[in-house]
Amino acid sequence: MADSTTHSIRAAAGHSFALTFPANPTTGYQWFFSNPLDQRFLTLVSNEYIPPASPSRIGQSGHQVLTFHAHLPGMTSIAMKYCRPWDDTDCGTFSFTIVQIS
């Protein structure tokens, strides 16, 4: 069974914010959107993998940081899944974030 989490955050219109997820691309897993973003409210600014701090151990996970820009006041969501690009039926983790933009 896959792990699932739900979060709520507040963001200010016209500003950016980041979501950070544990990630280990050496396993083949990456974070992907489960559903497209509602471009009226949010755009993805960057998607960056941050490796573990030195000295790192083989197989040690880092973090995937997704930065978003909030546009209009309102409410939207970000749905993510942690899957292998070639097999999205084997997702290990799901994350759902409710974003209230003011």
Automatic annotation (TrEMBL):
GO molecular function: peptidase inhibitor activity
Key words, A-Z: Protease inhibitor, Thiol protease inhibitor
KW Acetylation (keyword) present: no
Annotated Proteinase inhibitor I42 chagasin domain residues: 12-98
Coiled-coil boundaries: none
One Pfam family here: Inhibitor_I42
Annotated TM spans: none
PANTHER family (alphabetical): AMOEBIASIN-1, INHIBITOR OF CYSTEINE PEPTIDASE
Protein name per Swiss-Prot or TrEMBL: Protease inhibitor I42 family protein
Organism: Brevibacillus choshinensis
